């Protein structure tokens, strides 16, 4: 790649720092940016800076927002009795895209991981308990990942919430729609068998 001038090499190198972007993709993106009209490049640059400068965490759910309270939390049509607990803002977005949930959210900003020094005080468990203590929530849906850390976090939260008069549920896990059993891993198959239901 040394045949590119230093300014292009610098652009490629910076694009390649983005997650999931390898050197070849970074090169293609850099060349695309160079071929684009100046106005389009300026729009891209402005949108990156605007997002960086305006983005903050919602004071209520801790999701990404450009206001103090995000659009989901400020929506009066949402069900205040239902609270879905997720790990990261991207998990909330995925849940919203599914259209399957119309309650409120709580984003932990991580999971318990003693091996990495992440304990209960390092994620937003205190804030979760404070929400529960306000008394409006009737069901907490634990939607953490099915990794060891995600399962441990869900189990810990369930234990912490046992003293409150509310229902604590866990999202189901199992074989994906359209999935072929021979390609599904053993842990997923085990979960699917454990979560079987009447038809």
Secondary-structure element series: HHHEEEHEHEHEH
Classified by CATH, the class of the largest domain is Alpha Beta
Low-confidence runs? none
Query: What's the average pLDDT?
Result: 89
Structural class: alpha/beta
Through-space gap between termini: 59 Å
Instruction: Estimate percent helicity.
Output: 40-55%
Using the 3D structure, state the CATH architecture of the largest domain. Answer: 3-Layer(aba) Sandwich
Write down the CATH topology of the largest domain.
Answer: Dna Topoisomerase Vi A Subunit, Chain: A, domain 2
Shape label: globular
- Total of helices: 7
What is the radius of gyration?
Answer: 22 Å
Q: Could you give the topology of this structure?
A:
Blueprint: H1 6-15, H2 23-35, H3 38-54, E1 56-57, E2 64-65, E3 79-86, H4 89-98, E4 103-107, H5 125-133, E5 139-142, H6 148-160, E6 167-170, H7 186-194
Parallel strand pairs: 3-4, 3-5, 5-6
Antiparallel strand pairs: 1-2
Helix pairs in contact: 1-2
How would you describe this structure to a colleague?
By secondary structure, the protein is α/β, with parallel strands linked by helices. It folds into two domains: 6-54, Helicase, Ruva Protein, domain 3; 77-170, Dna Topoisomerase Vi A Subunit, Chain: A, domain 2 (3-Layer(aba) Sandwich). The chain has seven helices and six strands; from the N terminus they run αααβββαβαβαβα. The protein has helices spanning 6-15, 23-35, 38-54, 89-98, 125-133, 148-160, 186-194, and strands at residues 56-57, 64-65, 79-86, 103-107, 139-142, 167-170. It has a four-stranded parallel beta sheet. It has a two-stranded antiparallel sheet with strand order 1-2. A hairpin with a 6-residue loop joins strand 1 and strand 2 (64-65). Helix 1 (6-15) crosses helix 2 (23-35). The termini are far apart. The mean pLDDT is 89.
């Amino acid at each position: 790649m040394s045949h590119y001038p230093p300014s292009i090499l610098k652009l490629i190198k910076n694009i390649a720092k983005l997650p999931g972007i390898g050197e070849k993709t970074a090169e293609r993106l850099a060349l695309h940016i160079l071929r684009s009209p100046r106005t389009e490049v300026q729009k891209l640059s402005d949108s990156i800076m605007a997002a960086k400068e305006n983005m903050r965490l919602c004071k209520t759910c801790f999701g990404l927002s450009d206001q103090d309270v995000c659009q989901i939390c400020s929506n009066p049509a949402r069900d205040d009795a239902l609270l879905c607990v997720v790990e990261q803002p991207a998990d909330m977005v995925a849940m919203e895209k599914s259209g399957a949930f119309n309650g409120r959210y709580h984003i932990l900003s991580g999971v318990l991981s003693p091996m990495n020094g992440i304990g209960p005080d390092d994620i937003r468990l205190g804030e979760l308990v404070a929400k529960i203590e306000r008394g409006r929530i009737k069901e907490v849906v634990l939607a953490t990942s099915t990794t060891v850390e995600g399962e441990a976090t869900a189990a810990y939260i369930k234990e912490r919430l046992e003293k409150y008069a509310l229902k604590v549920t866990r999202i189901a896990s199992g074989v994906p729609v359209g999935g072929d059993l021979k390609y599904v891993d053993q842990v997923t198959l085990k979960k699917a068998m454990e979560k079987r239901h009447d038809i």
